UniProtKB/TrEMBL annotation:
Keywords: Transferase. This is Sulfotransferase. GO terms for molecular function: sulfotransferase activity. InterPro entries: NST/OST, P-loop_NTPase.
């Protein structure tokens, strides 16, 4: 059965969802209908992450993860002649076992990573958790202070706000195991400032027609604090109204409309300067090592 020949491996909160959506529009590209199956992170494992303190909330990864290879292969049973076959699981970058499992199962795979300024990525992950009511602490500084203890208690990776921004530590495993021509590392700024150019480069990397122009007007999985929590929950879950319009509005238009309304309902408090400086000091050495590894000037990340 079919296995992917490219993977988007991370980082979380770096527009990986948007990238997967844009790539999936290409007629020569097949993207797994299940985003983030996490197979290579947890193959044949019992996944039991905790997130105590949030009433009625168990970490969604425990039920969403695919650990059986046959179930994973079934995610690609819809392939019908596409050249590039892929999926996006952002934990592959941070999870130590993923790189070795990917190398074992699909050694010739193409690997794509997008890296976001780590202080902003950490804060965006915190805002994501607040947005979806997965975070019981409403101050970022206190959530950062709780992170070490949460890791010891086996909380899921969503709450490892600071830890997941140590990109050099994560990426070097891939550069040890794979030939550098199999790895493409982009910066979040690349997608923001030159979306068309980045997509052309990705299309070339995965071996499909570079001239295809996807619709990139929508932004997916945007984070922030819901202005109206009831509206956010209404749009985020299946309900009688959203289900009833399925036959009236084509799926792409319907999803874009819901996504746009959801995004407009979010406010985005800014990361405070003292916390930004605190995180920069923590990330400094990793950033300096990273820019040597990927041969990109990251001095702006240290300001």
């Amino acid at each position: 059965m079919t296995m992917p020949n490219f993977l988007i491996i991370g980082a979380p909160k770096s527009s990986t969802t948007s990238l997967a959506q844009y790539l999936g529009q290409h007629p020569e590209v097949y993207i797994s209908p299940k985003k983030e199956p996490y197979f290579f992170a947890f193959e044949n494992e019992q996944v039991d992450f905790l997130c105590p303190g949030i009433q009625g909330k168990d970490h969604i990864i425990n039920s969403a993860v695919v650990v059986d290879i046959e179930e994973y292969r079934r995610l690609f049973q819809g392939v019908s002649g596409e050249v590039a076959i892929g999926e996006a699981s952002t934990l592959y970058l941070a999870f130590p076992k993923a790189a070795e499992r990917i190398k074992y199962h699909i050694p010739d795979v193409k690997l794509i990573a997008i890296l976001r300024y780590p202080a902003d990525r950490a804060y965006s992950a915190f805002m994501h958790a607040l947005r979806d009511n997965y975070e019981s602490i409403n101050e970022f500084s206190r959530a950062l202070a709780a992170e070490e203890e949460r890791i010891k208690l086996n909380w899921g990776h969503l709450w490892r706000y600071q830890d997941q921004g140590l990109y050099y530590r994560q990426l070097k495993r891939y550069f040890w195991l794979f030939d550098s021509h199999q790895i493409k590392v982009y910066l979040y700024e690349d997608l923001v400032n030159n979306r068309a150019g980045l997509l052309r480069d990705v299309f070339d990397f995965i071996g499909v027609d570079q001239d295809f122009i996807p619709d990139t007007s929508a932004k997916y999985n945007v984070t922030g604090i819901p202005k109206n929590q009831l509206l956010h929950e209404f749009l985020s879950k299946p309900n009688l109204i959203t289900t009833s319009v399925k036959h009236l509005i084509p799926r792409p238009l319907r999803l874009k409309l819901i996504n746009d309304i959801r995004n407009s309902n979010l406010s985005k408090p800014q990361l405070t300067q003292p916390l930004r400086q605190q995180l920069i000091s923590i990330y400094r050495e990793d950033i300096l090592n990273l820019q040597e590894l990927i041969q990109r000037d990251l001095s702006a990340w240290l300001k």
